[in-house]
């Protein structure tokens, strides 16, 4: 993942500038990934020192609920590609399920896509990702998500844009 994109995403997260769906993705990443917690702590300390404001994590309850969701209790719907999706939370973010051996068709997006792995692993031609990993798919970047290993992979997927930077 491009570290500039990652740090811009985390900066916007700590500044409270992400859309609700993207903020949930950021909260999930911070909840499930030690390195993300450390990065968020640094950005929060920086933001608080500069703005002298208190830390507000208003999307934490929703992220906690998603992080502990049992895949068996979710009302999944199968998309045209065969991948299963479920609407979750208050915004437009959704859960995605890739069963063992399953992949989505190769595709790209017109906006930023933030995917956080909740269980299992997936590979997309750019890397292999596991629980807590955040994958930021830039507009135009092609990928083909596929379950990795012999377990089902469940992810939270949000789409949006970041207000503080542009893609080059």
Averaged pLDDT: 85
Largest β sheet strand count, sense and barrel closure: 6 strands, antiparallel
What coarse outline follows from CA principal-axis ratios?
A: globular
**What structural category arises from helix and sheet content?**
alpha+beta
CATH class: Mainly Beta
Detailed description of the structure:
The chain is an alpha+beta fold and 168 residues long. It has one domain (1-168): Sandwich (Jelly Rolls). The protein is built from four helices and nine strands, in the order ααααβββββββββ. The model has no long low-confidence stretch (mean pLDDT 85).
Fold topology:
Layout lengths: L2 H13 L4 H13 L1 H18 L8 H8 L9 E2 L5 E4 L6 E5 L13 E8 L1 E3 L4 E3 L3 E4 L8 E2 L5 E8 L8
Antiparallel strand pairs: 1-2, 2-3, 3-9, 4-7, 4-9, 5-6, 5-8
Helix pairs in contact: 1-3, 2-3, 2-4
What are the defining features of this structure?
single chain, 168 residues, alpha+beta, Jelly Rolls, six-stranded antiparallel beta sheet, three-stranded antiparallel beta sheet, 4 helices, globular
Q: Summary?
A:
It contains four helices and nine strands; from the N terminus they run ααααβββββββββ. It is α+β, with helices and mostly antiparallel strands. It has a single domain (1-168), classed as Sandwich (Jelly Rolls).
